[in-house]
Every structure is written in structure tokens, then in C-alpha cells.
Amino acid sequence: MDTIKATDWREVRRRRAWDLKQQGWKQRDIATALGVTEGAVSQWLKQAREHGARSLAARKAAGRPPQLTSVQRQQIPTLLAKGAEAHGFRGNLWTRRRVAVVLQREFGVKHSLQHVGTLLQQAGWSRQKPVRRAQQRDETAIAAWPKTTWQRLKKSRT
């Protein structure tokens, strides 16, 4: 559950089970009335007895704790601003795989490529595709081609 809704029906059901128990209902009857198992009712009532009725409230799932601290995440743009070649890569192009290698070297943390993409997005970096061009490309010859070679090759209208 990513966010908590104002009226989470599961919380309402747990609180209703607690209220019914306070009114003297048996666990089996509560389970039947709410359409759940007796085991679920047992767990809810135990939770409420041990930690109070507030423990039945809905709460955001904790999830896995982040591997990078907020300070480390703030350092990512600075690390990447040095360029890929400064980190020992050939060519100054960042890929998620390269960023993952840098994060593992710098912080000792291994991330999936998908999560590296998420970290880059959070850092304000956008996806870019490199322009693939031959290194021996001659821009002046390319610009002159339509005026010289193309004029000779194209068919005339006669």
C-alpha cells in the first residue's frame, strides 16, 4: 500500500472486530460477521490487547530501507559531473551500467540498472541517446555533396 486512504476499509474492519469483542462477541462470530478467518481476528485482537486499539490503524508499509543515505544521493550529480572518463571509462558517455559501477566503487552499494535509472531521475538527470557518428566524418564534404556530386547523379527531366 503506497499511500494511506482516509478511510481504509481494512482498518475499519479491524476496528470493528475490536468493537465487537468489547461488546462480548465470540471470536468465531466476529470472523463470520466480517467475512474473515478466525486466525485473522485472533491476530487483530492480540495486537489490540498488547499495543492498544491504535495499533489497528492503517500505516504505510515500511518497505526496504534505502541503501544510500540522503547525503550519498546528493553526491551523485557531483560524481557524474566529473565525466565518465574521469572514472576510468572510455568515452565521456554515461550509461546506467557505468553509473552502477561508479556507485559500487564509491559507496560499496550494488544497484539494479532499473534503480540506477530511478536514482538518476531523482538527481535531475534525463535519459539521452548518444549521437552515433563515424569518427572519420568530414562535415565540409557532407555539406558540399548536394551541390557537387548530387547534381551530377540526379536524372534530368528530359
Describe this structure in words.
With 158 residues, this protein is mainly alpha-helical. Among the domains are: 48 residues; 53 residues, no CATH class. It contains eight helices and no strands. Helix 1 packs across helix 3. The radius of gyration is 31 Å and the shape is elongated. It starts with 8 loop residues before the first helix and ends in a 5-residue tail after the last helix. The mean pLDDT is 87.
The main β sheet shows up as: none
SSE order in H/E notation? HHHHHHHH
Can you give the mean pLDDT? 87
The rough form would be described as elongated
Number of strands: 0
Proportion of residues in helical segments:
40-55%
Which characteristics define this entry?
51% helix; 8 helices; 158 residues
Quick summary:
With 158 residues, the chain is an all-alpha fold. Helix content is 51%, strand content 0%.
